[in-house]
Input
Amino acid sequence: MSFDSFAEFFAMGGHGFYVWLSYLSTAVVVAFVLVWPLWRRRRFLREQRGRIHRADALGQQTEAEAHASEA
Amino acid sequence: MNYIPEGLRRLWHRMGSPRWFYETTGSWVPWLGVAAALLIGVGTVWGLAYAPPDYLQGNSFRIIYIHVPAAYLAQAGYMLMAVCGVVLLVWRMKLADMVMATVAPIGAAFTFLALVTGAIWGKPTWGTYWIWDARITSVLILLFLYLGIMGLRRAIERPEAAGRACAILAIVGVINIPIIQYSVDWWMTLHQPATFTITEAPAMPASMWIPLLLNVLGFNLLFALSVIQGTRTEVLVRERRTRWVTELCRQER
Output
C-alpha cells in the first residue's frame, strides 16, 4: 500500500482532482463502449419484431419470405 | 488464389459469412467480459493504491494506467479499421465492412479518452491542459479521421458505396499513425517517449509497470468485447431481410 489512510488516498498528494477526474472520464467511456452495442441491438430487435408482427397480423409475407419467394 | 491451401480457403470463406460470425462469437462474450474485468480490476487497484508514487510527478503519474491503454487502442483501432478496409476492397468481404462500421465510434471514444486524460495529466505535469505540439495535434487529427469516417458513412446512402468510400479514407489516413508514433522523436515536444518498447526494459520498477501491462491487456479485451458485440448487432441490422434473422427476432424475447 502506497498510502497510510483513506484520506491520503483520496487526496493523492494534492493531485486528487486530476487523478479522479481522469478515472471518472474513463468510467464514462467504458460505460459507453459496453452499453452502445447492446442498446442498438435492443432497439433493432424491438423495431424488427414490430415489423414482423404487423406483417403476420395482416397475413402478409414478411420481407424475408418475399425475398425467398423472389429468389 | 490457387496457391492457398484448400482448408485455409474454406475457413476464409466461412469467416466472411456474417451468420457464421454471429453464431460463433456469441459464446465468447461472457469469457471476454470476465477476463477484461479481472485484468482491469487488478491493474487499476494496483496502479491507484499500491504502485509507488513517481519521484518527480508524485501521484498524478497514476493517470498513466488509463492514458496509455486508451492511446494504444486509439491507434490499434484505427489500424484494424484500415485492415478491414483493405479486406473489403480486395475480397469484397461484407463482414469486414461491418467490423469497420463498428470500430469507428468505439475507436473514436478511446481517442477522445486519450486526449482528455492527457489534457488532465498535462495540467499538474507541464502546467497546461493543452499545447499544439506534434503528438497532441496528430492524435486530435486521429479523432477527426474517426469522426470523418463516421460522417462519410452516414452521408452516402448506398451501403456498398459508403463502405468503399470509408475504406479508402481509412487506408489513406494510416499515414497519420507513424506520425503519432514518431512525433515525440522528430519534433521538440513536452510529451515523454514510449513507456514500453520491444528492445529495451521499461525504465520503471516492476511494481509500476506490471499494473500498466495488466490494464493494457484488459482494455484490449474490453475493446474486443465491444467490437464483437457491435459487429453482432451490425450483422443483424444488415441481414434483417434474411430468413435466419427473422427467425431469431421471433424467438428472442
